[in-house]
Design a protein that fits this description.
The protein is mainly α. Helix content is about 70%, strand content about 0%.
Length: about 325
Amino acid sequence: MIPDRRGTATLLLICVTAAWGLSFPGGKALLLAAQAALPGRDTWFFASLMIGLRFGLGALVIWAAYPRAFSQMQPSEWRQGFGLGLCGGFGMLLQADGLSYTEASTSAFLTQFASVLVPLVIVMRTRRLPSLFVLFCIALVVCGVGILAQFDWRTLRLGRGELETLIGTTFFAAQILWLDRATFHGNHSGRVTIVMFLTIAVILAPVAIRHTHHASDLLVFFSTGAMASMLGLLTLVCSVCAFLLMNRWQPFVDATTAGIVYCCEPLFATALALFLPALLARFTGIDYPNEVATTHLLIGGSLITIANILIALKPIAPVPRAIGI
């Protein structure tokens, strides 16, 4: 392992969470615009169609950049991409639909339990407890996300939204662990990402079709130039760029570190929500006000940032070098 790769990987994975953070206000604005253009449809329809289109189009973009990808695909790259697609597709679908049935703060808090589930699985697999340093960083991010989301344990109930979010979180944890498997080190991240994206699109296509009233419903995200532009932005930034970076650079850090780094996602989502919704509302013609900055953002964000700085500056364990694009 090249000594400086872990720090570089951590920084780039933080950039990944920034792109994912953009998908929250951006995705919500796009869903609100679609719901206004096509009222009366089930939440499963909009969630599955938006995510399926993002990753289906993303697969075409990457394939255009690597036209020989399928002829060069290795069996292990098919397996890795398929596993990542299964975990990511089901996880994102459950998370997106769950947001319609629970408070955003509760969903944000529950989603970040992937950072706790990952080391728990590793403990059961290796029968070794994480170091006190790792446990301290996990505690920081859990507290930080809880404060950031203004989470109140008294309001927690296990309804449809909470249950879907928790199940989705297990898929996200499985995705982190699947990407961490040593048997996949050396796979080409670009080819793996194409398989991952196609798998997500194939998984979600039946869900969208099942909840379609008319064939023209499937074109709702292209009904206006503003919606098509936003779909393109989410596809390129939040899907293509983010997951190419994730699949390329996560193998340079251990799974526990990756889980902690990914907890930056709600920090970026909250920060972007302070100014982006109003801009997107004017662009699409919907009602979507900005959120207001609070001390929760400062305190919670600081705890998450401190945990990521600590985990980046103190390597936990060397990992094999990966080969990517």
